[in-house]
Design goal:
Layout: H1 5-23, E1 29-34, E2 40-49, H2 59-69, E3 78-90, E4 93-96, E5 106-117, H3 118-130, E6 134-140, H4 141-149, H5 152-157, E7 159-164, E8 169-175, E9 178-185, H6 189-200, H7 204-214, E10 227-230, E11 239-242, H8 243-267, E12 277-280, H9 289-297, E13 301-303, H10 317-327, H11 331-337, H12 367-382
Parallel strand pairs: 1-6, 7-12, 12-13
Antiparallel strand pairs: 2-5, 3-4, 3-5, 7-8, 8-9, 10-11
Helix pairs in contact: 1-3, 4-10, 6-7, 6-8, 8-9
Length: about 375
């Protein structure tokens, strides 16, 4: 949760400045991930009569059926974040991903609607705008992370993704390639650092360094004999602390977080899914965290670390997911996003206008070339 918009904007601006310096480019448009705080997920449907006289489905029909699916009474404190179409139905024929160019009389859309508290969405947008940036698109953060941290089979058969970040921990359940459930625990890696700072009576910066250099989430894997110096407030000489003692502090906080997540997952019977548990996020870089998670959840656990050059750290999973989500937006996704009530939700690129089927030239582009061209268009537009 953003509690100080000015400080959040300053942090965003500082991060973007670093990125501009490293990449030698000017960044003015960004993809924003909205956390799953109080996220509500519901299935929606919409139906319209095809407007064109020829009964050929066009871009306008896709927009109209998406708008029809959004007709609902929302509580005044909530706002629509996004609508993910799962299938279109043309005259009773279902499982259609892109109905444009087809002939039909009745067009239906089935999708998943994500809504969040207005405060969450407003504060996110306001902080980004105060940082001098334009929002290209807004993405549900756990859904974006799942796109890179989970394989296609894991998203299909059902898997739990737990993102242990600095400020909070998010559990997301993916099944049937859809985000079915989220739970947020308002504690993360920063709380571990605070515990170390308080227990060892050392500064926050020193505590963070201790966690990164000597931390272990599994106290059984450490020894009392392995010690290191700690700068203690009020003492002139450093105090020697054992790795085991530090690990016990870390383990205690992580155990509390995982047990609360475990209780939420048990309530929805999430462990019946075959994909097990995948953990990611910056805090999961701690040694021993996989073993600790397996002990608490009593299910197979693996850690996801991005394999891209320069990103081989679980802290980058979320950022990579946001970029990939924007790059892989289809024309239909863009059309649907254009009818959302939030005016800042702009497509990263414009959808390709549809033409009559007989007027389309033969497509000799290979699938690899298509994928490459989409990514190139995204990179060109995103960094323009």
């Amino acid at each position: 949760m953003i509690v100080d918009i000015d400080k959040a904007a300053a942090a965003i601006r500082a991060a973007v400045n670093q990125a501009e310096e490293k990449a030698s480019i000017k960044i003015d448009r960004v993809v924003a991930g909205v956390p799953a705080n109080m996220l509500k997920i519901e299935q929606v449907t919409g139906m319209i009569a095809v407007g064109d006289q020829s009964k050929e489905i066009t871009d306008a029909d896709v927009k109209n059926v998406a708008a029809a699916a959004l007709v609902r009474n929302l509580p005044p404190e909530r706002e629509i974040l996004s609508l993910a179409p799962t299938e279109f139905i043309v005259d009773g024929f279902d499982d259609i991903k892109d109905p444009r160019g087809m002939i039909g009389v009745r067009l239906e859309l089935r999708g998943i609607l994500f809504t969040v508290p207005k405060t969450v969405l407003h504060n996110t947008k306001r902080a980004i705008e105060k940082a001098g940036l334009t929002i290209g698109s807004i993405v549900v953060a756990p859904l974006a992370a799942a796109q890179v941290a989970l394989s296609a089979n894991e998203r299909d058969f059902g898997t739990i993704l737990i993102d242990v970040g600095g400020g909070q921990t998010t559990a997301a359940v993916m099944h049937d390639n859809k985000l079915k459930f989220t739970d947020v625990d308002q504690e993360g890696g920063e709380y571990i650092t605070k515990d170390i700072s308080v227990v060892l009576n050392t500064g926050f910066t020193d505590a963070e360094k201790l966690k990164r250099d000597y931390g272990n989430a599994d106290s059984l894997a450490t020894h009392d004999t392995e010690q290191f110096p700690v700068t203690v407030v009020g003492k002139t000489e450093p105090v020697m602390i054992s790795e085991k003692y530090l690990a016990e502090i870390i383990e205690a906080r992580l155990t509390q977080i995982f047990k609360r997540i475990d209780a939420a997952l048990q309530q929805i019977n999430a462990y019946s899914l075959p994909g097990g548990i995948v953990i990611t996020g910056g805090t999961t870089a701690l040694p021993g965290i996989v073993e600790l998670a397996q002990d608490i959840f009593n299910h197979p656990v693996k850690r996801y670390i991005p394999e891209e050059m320069g990103l081989r750290h679980p802290a980058f999973t979320q950022g990579l997911g946001l970029i990939q989500s924007a790059a892989q937006m289809t024309d239909v996704d863009i059309l649907v996003a254009s009818v959302l009530p939030t005016p800042t939700l702009q497509a990263v690129r414009e959808p390709t206008p549809t033409a009559a089927p007989q007027a389309k030239p033969a497509d000799k582009t290979t699938p690899t070339e298509k994928k490459s061209s989409v990514f190139k268009r995204f990179i060109g537009n995103f960094f323009e």
